[in-house]
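Blinded run. Sample ID left blank on purpose so nobody reads anything into the name before looking at the predicted structure. Input follows.
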Amino acid sequence: MSPDRRIRWTATSALAVSCFALGFSVWSVSCQGRSPTGARHEQPGALHAAATRTQAAAEHVAAPAVTPAGAVHADVAPAEPADPAPHADAPSASDPSAAGLEVKRLVVTRGVKRREPLDTDQFTAGAGPVFAFVELGNTSDTDKVITLDFQHNGEAPVGHIKLKVPAHSSRWRTWGRTRRVDKGGDWTALVRAADGTELAHTAFDVQAPQS
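Blinded prediction complete.
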């Protein structure tokens, strides 16, 4: 090979190598800007800032409301069974005996307020209903039924109000009323078990209506 041709071949080879190196550099820079899937890369500082914003938003949404100590209010009544409606008929008890029943209070009154009898000084025949308020205990395993009666001077009783007393009740308050106390004189309120056993009675005086 002549010296001139050798020089031209060397120059051509050097130019080719330079072009190849330049193309590889451009391709390398392009690859640094994109992932193989085409996803955009961010700088570490930007990634940390984005993660911090996402975490702060999640904490803002998920943070539960904190109730100050002592600010919780419960509108729950004490553990005491609700009294049945006055003058409500009760179903027959499975055990009609008086076993386990105890009358703790028997009060004749003109009314009941907040499950307590009102103070009543006197009664007048035909002036309105008369209530018999009863507080009982039932230590037996079965519900019981009691009967409230009002009796005038040994005559046939009136009222016959049946009321249920649930099993395992240490303090059950209930009451019945009648409008048939319509005569002046001596009256008696009686509480009986379903089998007729008398549990309690109390006397009260009724004034005759003024003519």
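Unblinding after everyone has recorded impressions. The radius of gyration is 48 Å.
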